[in-house]
Every structure is written in C-alpha cells, then in structure tokens.
Design brief:
The structure is a homodimer.
Chain A (H helix, E strand, L loop, with lengths): L2 H9 L3 H12 L3 H14 L6 E6 L6 H14 L4 E5 L4 H4 L6 H4 L1 H5 L3 E4 L7 H17 L4 E6 L4 H7 L4 E6 L12 H6 L2 E4 L7 H17 L12 E4 L8 H17 L2 H23 L7 H13 L5 H14 L1
Parallel strand pairs in A: 1-4, 1-5, 2-3, 2-4, 5-6, 6-7
Keywords (chains A, B): Kinase, Transferase
InterPro entries (chains A, B): GTPase_ArgK, P-loop_NTPase
Protein name (chains A, B): ATPase/protein kinase
C-alpha cells in the first residue's frame, strides 16, 4: 500500500480512502499497526471537527435521529461522519443491525460517511480504534463527527474522552423510569434530547423532559459552562422537529467553550489521557508476547494448584522481565 | 520489628500481633512492603477460614447484623474476624462510623477481631490490603472472616475474588425498589437476607423476600451449586431471629462446595486472579518511579499542548524503558 498516496487522497476527502485507512487502524497485524502509526503521523492534526458523542439505549430511535440530524447538517453543506462504538456488537460478530441499512438516505449522501462497528473488537481495542478513526475523519476534512454508543456505561467512558459534546438521547417514559439512566451517564451529558415527541407520545415526552430537566438541576454545576447547561429538550426525529434548535444549542455551547479556552483545555486533557492509556497498554503488552505468555500461563496453573503464592509468582515473572 | 516473633505470636492467635501485622501490610513504605511480603511468606497458607463477603447499602442494619451474627458464632466457640472493604471511607479520611463503636459487644469479645477500614486507601490498594489481611486472619486461626462492603459495586468485585460465600443484606422495601440493587451484585449473592423482619416491617420484609426469591429464580442457574441456591431469607438482627437458619444455610452450601471440589477450584481461580493482578501492578509500577514519573509528567504536558501525539509520546517512554 502506498501510504503517501493514501494520505493525499484521504486529505482530499475521498471516502474510499478514508474507509481503507480505518480498516488499517482496525487491523491487529503488526505490519498494519506500523503503517497505521506512520499514516497518522503523516496526516498530523490539522483540522478540528466538532466531535459529538451520542448515547442512547436501543429503542430510543437513535438511527432515525442520526439519519434526520445528519441529513439536516449535510443539507447545510456540512460534512458528517458517523462512527459506532459498540463493544456489544462483538458478541454478534458484527454491527448489530448493519449501520448503513439503518440510515439509508444518509448513507447515500455524498457529504456523509458512515462506518459500521467493527466485528470482534474488545473494549481496549475499541477505544484505540475509535480514537484513530476520529483522527482520520478529521484529516479527511469532516466538519461533524457523530460517535454513537449504546448506553451501557463502559463505552460512554471511552466516548467522553473523545468528544467535545455529549448528547444523551432518551425515549418518552413514565417518571419512575428516570432511574433507568445511569447517573454517571447523565452527568456526562451536555444535552438531553427526549426523542419521539410526536403523536401519542407527545405528552409523555413533555413529562419525561420536565423530569430530566429537574434531575439535571440537582446535578453539580459545571464551572466551565454557562449556567443553563446541561439542558433537556424535546425532539422528533420522525417529524424532523426540534433538530434545528438542538443543533443551535450544540453550536452555542461549543462556541462558548472555544471562546473561553475550555475547548482546547479539554482536548489537551483528552490527549494526555490517551497518552497514559497507550503507555499502560504498551507496558502490559509484554504479557501477550512469547515466551512470557506461556510462562505466565504455566505459573498461573501452579498458583491455582497452591504450589506458589500469587505474590511470589508475580515477583518471579517481574524479575525475569527486568533481567531480559 | 522482629518478624519471626510477630509471626509466632500471630499464629498463636494473638490479636494485637494480628493488628500490627495488618498495619504492616497496609503501609505504602517500601521497607514495610518488603517486611510484609516476608511475613506472609513465613506464615504460609496453613488454615482456611470460611470467608464470607457481606454486602449491603447503609441503612440495611449491617452493623447490627454483624454484631448479632458474630456474637452467635463466638457463642458457639468459633473465632470471628471482621474486615471492612470500603473505598468510600477514603473520602471521610477514615472508617465511616468507627467500626468498633458500631459493634460494641462483638468488639469486646475475646474470640472476635474487628479491623476498621484504613483511611486514605485507593481501590487498588484496598484490594491488595484486604487480600493480605484475610491471609493474616487465616494464619491467626480465625474460623470465620466476614468481609464487609457498602454495596456500591466496585468493592463487591474485589470481595467476590476473595470470599467463599457472598451474602447480600437488604432492608424491607416496596417491590418497585427491587431495581435499586445492581443486577451484577445480585448475581454474586449466594444468600440474600432481608433484615429487619420484625415489628411494623415484618409484612414488608415478607413481600421483599418473596420479590427477591422470584428475581433469583430468573437468574441463570449455577451449575456448581444445588438447585435451590441462591436463596432469599428473612432475618431480624435486632431480635436475633433467623440467624441460626441463615448460618445453617451458609454451612450447608460451603460443605456442598467443599465435597464437590468447587471450593478448592474457586480458591485456585482466585489465587490465579491475584497473581495476574500483582503482575499488572508490578509492570505498571515503573510509572510511579523516578526518573520515569517526571519524564511521563513532562511528556504529558507536551501532549496536552499538542506538541507531540499521544502515540509518539508513549512510544518514546516505552523505548526509553526497554533500553534501560
């Protein structure tokens, strides 16, 4: 593969090259990994897209929202990339519903790029893969990157370290179901959107929205944000209602953070976080390499049998590694 | 400190020596750590106590339960140790209510040993400290070790890797509050005890117990246990009712597991888990040592400022370490 050519094409916005580059960063092969690092290095960090984390459990209408919201943005001339962070898809061995068929119109839009979740990914791998895919989308000149998660908790933590804004999508529900959303996820949200505010569900959506607005007021204020954030609002992805207002809110908050220095501070903190994660991963990688892997497995059996204490066995490996 | 003398006294069951030994394993000082490892090595793994993990949120009457249950056991001639695993106590800088004053009678019982939670502990440190304190209590000949947690999730995971039985203590409540207990914690429980089954709360306790018994039936069966476990039962720590039955259930399950080989299999798996944890901790320890710590801090600032990419910075440190 000609990396220089790939980089040039990608930077010109070519979506096939972007797809190929993401496949490269997703690969576990050592030679692919080396090429991926070389590619990322060559691309540098020129553009900054607005990275929006979007969380919501299955059933809240996330695909419909992304389709409607994405088409509104591309209609304004913006280029939109959609990435899925979904460790649970590893179970089914691929993306849950086939991301592109979930968003048919957006997938055909030349200003949009949709990347299905990779199969067989593990959480650690997902974090790295998504971070690098985001960097590639920025290099390809996308204006907005939607990073989608399924609301199970662990993937949200990854996305919080990747995005500039975090949006939580909810469905209308009885007030007692408010506790169904993990507090940790609610605390991450900059904007809560109650979807399906249409037809029979409209009044339920109003109640749910009021409940969450109340719950948000009880959360600790964030010193870095205007006093009226985080906010809860209603939208209807189906009827395309409220989407422009939601987008205005996102832009307003993003601009406020840019002007007050919080944007770059956060990006810096995120980069530092990933530096430390890469460092940890690199230090622990030795455990997956031979001959250490086999020695650890054998000693593990001896520990389980009670022949060696856990501490002594660990010391033995550590001495071996420090000698080598 | 004369470690041989400490070991001998501890093995004779001397509680002051046990307390001193636990203080030693709790210390972060390098010389104390070396002594702690030497002591644990000298003591070996002779005795096996019955290790009971006990989880319950504040307000369920955990202290009263431990006091009543502990006194019943010591009344039968058994020696009982109580250890608290409580990362949240780090916030208040010590044990929440002063563990010994919470269990006044048990604290005065010569057959009991109560260890308050250490202050300023971090989760990783809590895991290691508790595991080593358990080993010390076993070496001191205790028959039962109660490992108490506050039901917030993370500490339960630690305790599950330490105990032979896991008991979840609950208070009577409306059926709709069932969801308040995290599913993950319920899945760990071998026995659910609904406390406060006395006075005005008796009928509420009955309902709660029935609700949880129903919920337990919906959980996946464990191939290694008799078909009627996990169980839900009512107790009243205040009136000392149901405690003997609960204890009979615990013994029955423990004996069943011993006879069917599951006890030793689980202890083996737990030991292997701690071996791998120690190994990870050992490999990452270099990040807390100079000069690496300072270099990482400096590079972290450069990464945050955007002067170096996270990946390149991590590679730089890893190359440095592999050279050294």
């Amino acid at each position: 593969m000609d990396l220089a050519e790939l980089a040039t094409k990608l930077q010109s916005g070519d979506r096939r090259s972007l797809a190929r580059a993401i496949t490269l960063v997703e690969s576990a092969r050592a030679d692919h990994r080396a090429q991926a690092l070389e590619l990322l290095q060559a691309l540098g960090q020129q553009n900054q897209a607005l990275r929006i984390g979007l969380s919501g459990t299955p059933g809240v209408g996330k695909s419909t929202f992304i389709e409607s919201f994405g088409l509104m943005l591309t209609g304004q001339g913006l280029r939109v990339a959609v990435l899925a962070v979904d460790p649970s898809s590893a179970r089914s061995g691929g993306s849950i519903l086939g991301d592109k068929t979930r968003m048919e119109q957006l997938a055909r839009d030349p200003r949009a790029f949709i990347r299905p979740s990779p199969s067989q990914a593990q959480m650690g791998g997902v974090a790295r893969r998504t971070r690098e895919a985001v960097a590639l989308c920025e290099a390809a000149g996308f204006d907005i990157i939607l990073i989608e998660t399924v609301g199970v908790g662990q993937s949200e933590t990854v996305v919080a370290e990747l995005c500039d804004l975090f949006v939580l999508l909810l469905a209308p529900a009885g007030g007692d179901e408010l506790q169904g959303v993990k507090r940790g996820i609610m605390e991450m949200a900059d904007l809560i959107l109650v979807n399906k505010a249409d037809g029979d569900l409209k009044s339920a959506a109003q109640r749910t929205c009021a409940d969450y607005a109340g719950a948000l007021r009880l959360l600790r204020k964030r010193p870095q944000d205007p006093a009226d954030y985080p906010k809860a609002m209603m939208v209807s992805a189906l009827e395309q209602a409220g989407l422009a207002t939601a987008w205005a809110e996102m832009q307003s908050l993003a601009n406020w953070r840019r002007q007050n220095g919080h944007w770059s501070t956060r990006r810096g903190q995120q980069a530092e976080h990933w530096f430390r994660e890469e460092l940890r991963r690199g230090l622990l990688a030795v455990l997956d390499q031979q001959p250490t892997k086999s020695i650890v497995a054998d000693l593990g059996l001896a520990v389980a049998a009670g022949d060696v204490t856990p501490e002594a066995a660990a010391q033995q490996i550590l001495r071996l590694l420090h000698k080598g």
